UniProtKB/TrEMBL annotation:
Gene3D superfamilies: Alpha-L RNA-binding motif, Pseudouridine synthase I, catalytic domain, N-terminal subdomain, RNA-binding S4 domain. This is Pseudouridine synthase. It comes from Liquorilactobacillus satsumensis DSM 16230 = JCM 12392. Its EC number is 5.4.99.-. GO terms for biological process: enzyme-directed rRNA pseudouridine synthesis.
Length: 239
């Protein structure tokens, strides 16, 4: 936890009391106390030493934690699954904090996911305006020609909307098997985007892995393993 003061509704939302909007309603309704005094204004800021109670119950503040996880294929990017399939939080049984993934990777896609309980940072990282580069390594059917790469770099039409320009290049080709491995870097996060882009230029994806997220990479990790982000890495993400 930081030593900074933060808006009360933000602290409440992060502690899992309610969404920030719903937390504001609780404050305005006089349901929240700070250090024994009822608070009904939204501008109040609190620090780690302040005692916050909601409906008479003390707020439990979790320590903020940040992990870099190498998601294997066949795992859901969620905290739970109604079909009983394996989810990413299953790999963090020894971590006491409630974690959730920043964004998502498809069930059959492997690669880098940031896991945290810092909702504020997660929302910022997922916001389109921050344009964080994400690099994917894809094994595709066929061997893409220069024309296909040119289209990817300029942007292709998927779901009636053109994608932003991407960085794309060939890593290797197996002429006998008629398959290739390519690198594709995008900053958008549309549904099935990489698969749809490659499908649109005529090279369906057989296998997909997210190799990097901004400055973070999978270096030193195997599928199913994770590591804590360093303080420096967390600061860089926040910036």
């Amino acid at each position: 936890m930081t030593n900074e003061t933060e808006r009360l509704q933000k602290v409440m939302a992060r502690a899992g009391v309610a969404s920030r909007r719903a937390s504001e309603k609780l404050i305005l309704a006089g349901k929240v106390q700070v250090n024994g005094a009822v608070v009904t204004e939204l501008g109040i800021k609190v620090g780690p030493a302040d005692l916050v109670t909601v409906n008479g119950e003390a707020l439990e503040r979790e320590k903020q934690v940040y992990y870099l996880f190498y998601k294997p294929r066949g795992v859901i990017s969620a905290a739970s699954d109604d079909k009983g399939r394996k989810v990413v939080v299953d790999y963090f049984k020894d971590v006491p904090e409630r974690l959730y993934p920043v964004g998502r990777l498809d069930y059959d896609t492997s690669g880098l996911l940031v896991m945290t309980n810092d909702g504020e940072l997660a929302n910022k990282l997922m916001h389109p305006r921050y344009k964080i580069d994400k690099t994917y390594i894809a094994k595709v059917e066929g061997i893409p020609d220069n024309e296909a790469f040119k289209k990817l770099r300029l942007g292709v039409l998927i779901d009636h909307k053109k994608t932003a320009p991407a960085k794309a290049h060939l890593l290797s080709a197996e002429r006998a098997k008629k398959t290739a491995v390519i690198s594709l870097t995008i900053h958008e996060g549309r549904y099935h985007q990489v698969k749809k882009m490659l499908e649109a230029v005529g090279y369906p994806v057989q296998k997909l892995r997210r190799e990097s997220y901004g400055f973070l990479t999978l270096a030193g990790l195997n599928a199913g393993s994770y590591r804590k982000l360093t303080q420096d890495e967390v600061q860089r993400l926040k910036q």
